[in-house]
Amino acid sequence: MQVVEKLNEGLSRVYEVTIAKDQLTQKLNAKIAEVAPKMNVKGF
């Protein structure tokens, strides 16, 4: 993960956050696996 401060004026801040696709996919799949057994979708 990379964080770059793009704007710093007074109390205002703007950041650019870059996350590697592999890192995001891994975390997302882990969270889906965690909540999947608890999901209940009507009609299925």
How does this structure look, described?
Helices cover 34% and strands 34% of the residues. It is an alpha+beta fold and 44 residues long. The longest helix is centred in the middle third of the chain and has 15 residues, at 21-35. The protein has one domain (2-38). The protein contains one helix and two strands; from the N terminus they run ββα.
Number of H- or I-type helical stretches:
1
Give, in spatial order, the strands making up the sheet with the most strands. 1-2
Listing every helix as H and every strand as E from the N terminus to the C terminus, the arrangement reads EEH
> How many angstroms separate the termini?
38 Å
Beta-strand percentage? Answer: 25-35%
**Mean pLDDT value:** 93
Largest sheet: 2 strands, antiparallel
In helices, the fraction of residues equals 25-40%
**Number of DSSP E strands:** 2
Low-confidence stretches: none
Would you kindly provide a brief summary of this structure?
This protein has 44 residues and is α+β, with helices and mostly antiparallel strands.
Summarize this structure as a short list of keywords or feature phrases:
44 residues; alpha+beta; two-stranded antiparallel ribbon; 1 helix
